[in-house]
Amino acid sequence: MKQTLSVVIPAYNEEKTVDLVLDQVLGLDLEGLQIEVIVVNDCSTDGTRSTVEAYISKYQNRSIHLFNQEKNKGKGAAIRRGIEKATGDFLVIQDADLEYDPGEYKDLLVPILSDKADVVYGSRFMGSNPHRILFFWHSLGNKFLTFLSNMFNNLNLTDMETCYKMFRSEIIKKIYLRENRFGFEPEVTAKIAKVPGIRIYEVGISYYGRTYSEGKKINWKDGFRAIYCIIKYSLFRKRVFK
After folding, report:
1. CA 134 to CA 22: how far, in whole Å?
2. What is the pLDDT at residue 220?
3. Which is it for the CA torsion 166, 139, 236, 8, positive or negative?
4. What value does the mean pLDDT take over residues 118-133?
5. At 203, which helix (H) or strand (E)?
6. Residue 57: exposed, middle, or buried by beta-carbon count in 10 A (0-12, 13-18, 19+)?
7. Which residue, 39, 41, 38, is CA-closest to 72?
8. What average pLDDT does range 84-106 have in this prediction?
9. Where are the alpha helices (DSSP H) in the chain?
10. What is the rounded distance in angstroms from the CA atom of residue 209 to the CA atom of residue 134?
11. Cα–Cα distance for residue pair 217/212, rounded to 1 Å
């Protein structure tokens, strides 16, 4: 029986790009792996929902599932619902914009399929892949948050805040997650680091970042929340499993 990769796509007001991302994901040849797509629409106020519904109607032979949040809860809450609904052997998080290239799932899968890794992070700060040049302070902030997370969790990641995190589903489905917004990244990192015997790998990926005028949503408040979450889940809230 073929193994399946579940692609969890949290989407909020991404009508301009979500169908393009779906095209890229469903166009992949992952060497025998089946692909299951889970789109979680976080109560978008644009045409995201209707765009995905139309896409599903057009490709009824593909495994694409849409779940709609009754109210806007944030990226972390959308990812939690996607994890809950996913049925694949492996799971990866994919933003609904075009900042990350699904073609690099193959690179993320290598350590997992060779049974060397349980979790793989895609790093925007290593390797020779293309990276759009954008904001100095964002880059510095990401590196500071990664440093802080590494210090508290005894890791040596280069990009804790990356969207591209791939898991063995049996592991991520057991993790007790609480954060509703962008605090998901430091929370899941802190809790994964506490799993006994966990094998975490990192591979270099491309990054085609957006400006705020192009739809970028994370802001400085989320940076302060990330610091809070790193300390909170590393030192105080130590519950890891459901």
Report:
1. 25
2. 60
3. negative
4. 82
5. strand 200-204
6. exposed
7. 41
8. 96
9. 18-26, 48-58, 75-85, 105-113, 136-153, 169-172, 184-193, 220-231
10. 7
11. 7
**Model pTM above 0.70:** yes
Q: What is the pLDDT of residue 218?
A: 65
Mean pLDDT of the chain: 92
Q: Can you tell me the distance from the alpha carbon of 146 to that of 152, in angstroms, rounded to the nearest whole number?
A: 10
Question: What average pLDDT score do residues 163-191 get?
Answer: 96
Q: Which residue has the tokens 């990664």?
A: 146
Give dist(CA 6, CA 76) in Å, integer: 17
Range 216-224 average pLDDT: 69
Side-chain-side CA neighbours of 140 within 13 Å: the count stands at 4
What percent of the chain is helix, strand and coil (3-state, nearest 5)?
A: 40, 20, 45
30 contacts 109 by C-beta, under 8 angstroms: yes
**DSSP assignment letter at 97:** S
pLDDT at residue 134, as a whole number: 57
